[in-house]
Amino acid sequence: EKWRKRRKILTPTFHFNVLEEFVDSFVEHTDRLVESLKSGAES
């Protein structure tokens, strides 16, 4: 029962339309992370 209540609360948070708004931010931060990892690998 606890699981059902929590799922009901959280499910709208991860709906595709909501997540779509964050795609640009995800891409930007992923690019930064990749560049940082590349720099660390070269040193």
Automatic annotation (TrEMBL):
Keyword list, A-Z: Monooxygenase, Oxidoreductase
Gene Ontology molecular-function annotations: heme binding; iron ion binding; monooxygenase activity; oxidoreductase activity, acting on paired donors, with incorporation or reduction of molecular oxygen
SUPFAM superfamilies: Cytochrome P450
Domain of life, per lineage: Eukaryota
Transmembrane intervals: none
Protein name in UniProt: Cytochrome P450
Organism: Bracon brevicornis
